[in-house]
Specification:
It is built from 3 helices and no strands. By secondary structure, it is mainly alpha-helical. The protein has a domain at about 5-40 and about 70-94. Helix 1 packs across helix 2 (about 25-50). It starts with a helix and ends with a helix.
Length: about 90
């Protein structure tokens, strides 16, 4: 675990609060914040698989192979998902 994992969670929660206050739906904010960091990690994985080249030869699901992600990449996704889920549950219960 490093500091970037916590920063990712804080950014996702920030997205969630913005959408939650704007729409009144914190679950929508949870989905957006989590999906944003999922997309980020998938893009980074595809970049690593192609060494920065074209993704033309990759299978469409290659970036989603979470079992082959590095530990840090997994945590970079887990922390935003866990953080936004806890906030959505708390907002729903209040």
């Amino acid at each position: 675990m490093n500091l970037s994992n916590l920063y990712h969670a804080l950014y996702a929660i920030g997205f969630q609060f913005f959408l939650g206050i704007a729409t009144g739906n914190f679950w929508l904010g949870m989905a957006f914040g989590s999906a944003f960091f999922l997309g980020r990690e998938v893009a980074q994985r595809e970049y690593k698989l192609t060494n920065g080249g074209s993704v033309k030869g990759l299978k469409p699901w290659a970036g989603f192979d979470i079992l082959n992600w590095g530990w840090d990449a997994k945590l970079d996704l887990f922390f935003p998902v866990a953080g936004t889920t806890l906030v959505a549950i708390a907002a729903h219960c209040l």
